[in-house]
Each structure stands twice: as structure tokens, then as C-alpha cells.
Amino acid sequence: MHRSPTATGLLPRLREIRLASEALIAPLEPEDLCLQGMADASPPKWHLGHTSWFFEEFLLKHPELLALVAPYEPSDSRWGYLFNSYYDAVGARHPRPQRGLLTRPGIGELLAWRQRVSAGLERLLERLDGLEPQQAAAPLALVELGLQHEQQHQELLLMDLLDGFSRNPLEPSYSLASDGPENRFEARARAGTGPGQTSAWLDHPGGLVAIGQPQGEVGPESAVGGFHFDNEGPRHRVWLESFAIARQLVSNGAFEGFIADGGYRRPELWMSEGWAVANQRDWQAPRYWRGDWEFTLAGRRPRHPEAPVRHLSWFEADAFARWAGARLPSEAEWEITAQGLDQAQGLLWQWTASPYRPYPGFAPAPGAVGEYNGKFMTSQFVLRGSSFLTPNGHERLTYRNFFPPSSRWMAAGLRLARGGEPQ
User: Which CATH class is domain 181-419?
Assistant: First the structure.
């Protein structure tokens, strides 16, 4: 599927990523740990528990690995019900909208469990180092998957926390630190809005292009390499008509023009479902806009016209593109031009016109872990790139993020495309 990780290489990453998750709750008050602002979000404490459950369920309790992780003290058998997310093959789970009610186990007990899990994983890696490569390959791949999974939840924890804090009339801040998330966003936004290119658009001639990660291929295309989730492959060919794609993301100032021109009041710009949702929820601006300000993880901040607009649903992004006389790019168009684009990585996830569907030849992994991505390939749209909340090293050009089209609490923006036809 991809180049196999080594136990020696994984050990420092394991320590770094596990500690990074726990560092995310350092600025929080104890009361914040169970904060769940809406059904789609999860409390910080749940994210910490779920990422440990994932390792325990799929590695530390695996019958074939018990001897390698011993001595290991598993969690209370009932905790699986609390921290299972959506793995039906594993068993029943606590309703997602009620995760904020889980005041117990307490944070001390949960952090002690995390330490036991981390210690068990370290023993596993040390002992896998002594096995034949073919014997160690499967568990090492699961450790890598678990680390990538934990990095996903680090980003989700912050997005969910922003949603929860935004509902508090006191408008609390998560971090005002110079290296905090909001200052990181502002610095990257400024860096991406300099003199610019000779053209605001990057032209592409189209043709037959290859996208996605190779799975067991050899030759030049396999150079993409590295870890990837199963939904990023197999690598395959797509025909593209000639098109142009915007070099930069759509700005706050541009989106203000859409609003001033009645963008939220013009049904001809919207998909029917999006128009119904926008009216039902009384959308009049992006998710966290408040007058000339916007709510952020650093509390209320002035909104900069030149900064990329963020926290948009797919419906809003699509309506804006139509208003601008353009469209959203397909994920193939995005991937094939990403290395020539500004603000492609590290600022905002970017909505595409592509529904989240399996690539030709896709097959989920066997067993419960195969539920990771495949069963969500319906009624969602693909986002590409990464955001200012994405952990370092977790981004790549083939990454396929996905959310329902009405979701807008994520750190998502858009860039425009024109010409050609979305694939």
C-alpha cells in the first residue's frame, strides 16, 4: 500500500504526537473539557479518550500482539462504549450528541490511561524491532495509522473548541500566545498576500493526468510514496479539459462584495438544498463573522479584508463561485496544479466541486479498521490542502478531507476555477 514504517522511526513520532494531544488542553479550564457546542462536535476530553481507545482496541488488545505489549493494563471494559466513534464491527457506542455528558472518567483517570497506552505502544515498537520485517509490517502500519488518526483529532479538537467557545457570550479565547493558532493563521495569511504573480490565474492545458497515491505500483508514479489513507488511492488517470485556477484563496473583502450584492438573498445563486439550509439557519455571513470582526481561537479579532475568508459551507462556496462567474475546482484540477498555487497548504482547507466518492479500484482494509473512510463515501464533498490547525507533517497533496455540504465550523475556504468541466 505504501512504504512500510520502521519501529525505530515511529518511536520518536509516537512520543511527540501523544504529548502534543495532551498539550492542547493546557490552556483550558477543567469545565472546558466536556464542552460540546453541537451534535457534530466532540468535547476535548472525548478526543483524548478516543485516540487512546483506537490504539488499545486495534493494537494493544489484539490477540496476536498481547505477548509483545505485556504487561499492559487495559481500560475499564465499559470505556469502549464511551470512546468508540463509528466502528460498528467493534460494538455499540454512546450517542455522539451526548458526548458532553460524559463527565466521568475524570481527566486524571483518563490521562493515566493515556500514559499506559503510550507505554504499551513503546514496548510494542521496541519488541517489533526484533521481528522479521514481514512479521512486523502489519502492526507497524496500524501504529502509523493510529498516529495519523490522532493528528486528525488534534485538528478536530481545536475546531470543535472554537465552535463551543463561539456560543459563550463572554467570547473566551483559547490562546493569545504568539505561536498560538490565530497568530499562526494571521502570519501565514500575510505571507500569502504579497505582490502576487504576474497573473491571478494559473492556466492548465488539460489532458490525461494521474492523481492519487500509488498502491503497490512500481516506476516513476510510485515516487509519490509515503503514508496515505486508503481513500487517497489507487493512483489513476483522469481526463481534464483546459482550465484556469485562481492562484490565491478568495478573500474576506471579495466575500463582503458577495454579501453586499445580496448573495444570501438571491436563490438563483444557490443549490436548492443549500438555499433551504441557509434560510432555515438564517445564514447572512460566514460562520464566525460578527460585524467588522470575527470570532477566533484568540477571541474576537478585527477582520482583515485581504485575509482568506474562512468557515464557509460548500453551499456558500458554490454560491460565491457562481456569483463571481466562476466555479469550484475539481479535486483533480486542484491536485494537478497545487504545487503552482499560493496558499495551497497550511492556511485553509479548500472546498472542491468533487463529491466524496471512491477512486476506481478502491477497496477498504479488511476488518473493523476498514470502516475508517470507505463507508462515508456518500452525501459529502471533498476538501483539499490543509489548514493552520493541521499538525506539521500531516499535510500532503493527495489528502482527501471530506464533510457534508452544510458544515462550516471547519477551517475551510475556497479558491475559484473557470473553463473546462469539473470531474
Answer: alpha beta
